[in-house]
Write a structure and sequence with these properties.
Blueprint (H helix, E strand, L loop, with lengths): L4 E9 L5 E8 L5 E5 L5 E7 L5 E3 L8 H4 L8 E2 L5 E3 L2 E4 L2 E4 L12 E3 L12 E7 L2 E10 L10 E9 L4 E10 L3 E2 L3 E2 L2 E2 L13 E3 L4 E2 L13 E2 L11 E2 L9 H6 L3 E5 L8 E7 L5 E7 L3 E5 L22 E6 L14 E2 L5 E11 L1
Antiparallel strand pairs: 1-2, 2-3, 3-4, 4-5, 6-16, 7-10, 8-9, 11-12, 12-13, 13-14, 14-28, 15-27, 17-26, 18-21, 18-23, 19-20, 19-22, 22-25, 23-24, 24-28, 25-26
The structure holds beta-D-glucopyranose (BGC).
Beta-D-glucopyranose binds next to strand 25.
Length: about 350
Amino acid sequence: MNKPSFEVADFGKTKYGEQAKKFVLHGAGGVVMEVSDYGGKIIKVFTPDRDGKMKDITVGFDDPSGWDNGDPYWGCIIGRYGNRIRAGRFTLNGQEIQLPALNNAPAGIGCNLHGGARGWNAYVWGAEPFVKGDDVGVVFTHTSPDGDEGFPGKVEIKVTYTLTAANVWRVDYEAVPDKDTPINMTQHVYWNFKGEAGGSIQDHVMKIPASRITPTDKGQIPDGTLADVSGTPFDFRSGMLIGERINEPNEQLEFGRGYDHNWVLDKKEGELSLAASLFYPGNGRTLEVWTTEPCVQVYTANWCDYNQTAKGGEHLSFRCSVALETQHAPDSPNHPEWPTTIVKAGQTYRTTTEFRFGVA
Ligand code: BGC
């Protein structure tokens, strides 16, 4: 076992003029992570393969401009509300709240996505790196003002990244609003176990212990139903190659251009349980995602066909990575019959997600 340690370096200026830092976390178990205070972004994650060879297995950029000039959600903390809210509108305590509904507006079905035009991912947060026993990590803090992107209430947020000796990256979320408001935070890290420029992730095996999804309309917003995955390309309960059924004719797959859906986990409310696992047979890398959240959005980078270059000269391409976003169901503020995302004034929102790295 190594001694856990960290280094701090400049990461450059964001397009908002804020100076960002980068933290290199050396875990006692060998995993090394580079993370930034710019929205908690994951820059690199080095894990061993079955021969002990280390490789960076996430998509990120060498400096903030990569995020600022393309899709901003690679590897970041998402808030105040991860995923979509239909027409950016919901009723809270009898009052209608209208948020900007910029996403998918061209399709005629606008929605609020990942907290709006400038979500919590796009701020430089307070950051305190730490070593505590065998753990190394960073505590990130941020204040979202009342009315931020149209949401009611000021929110004080704390997100702790901890890298343990067992090669687990744990994310603990805490947020306290001063008015009732929806909160649905997640981490939007994208994986490719073949490493930088690894190409498609359709050859990764994925497992999801969930017997239902929340199907969407063509604007990718839940239509309010729950669908049984049995016999469909969404049945990952026994594990399946991501690419095995992704190109089948299927309305849901057409709406998402592949997997971009929310699975409702088979679990007891609030327990820390497996949300998804990934395995690349070619080199043995495995990941288990455990969470206290009820759902996971799986997104196979289907909209990623723009011309952008990531770190190491990687050309970002269609299905070049997969994100496993633990969360409450999208559009929950419009579905009172689903587990609520409304956090009452003065209450503490608290969730935990763990990324457990291994080999097989
Ligand atoms: C959504 C995708 C969206 C992506 C943006 C995902 O969480 O489900 O539809 O394109 O975020 O990076």
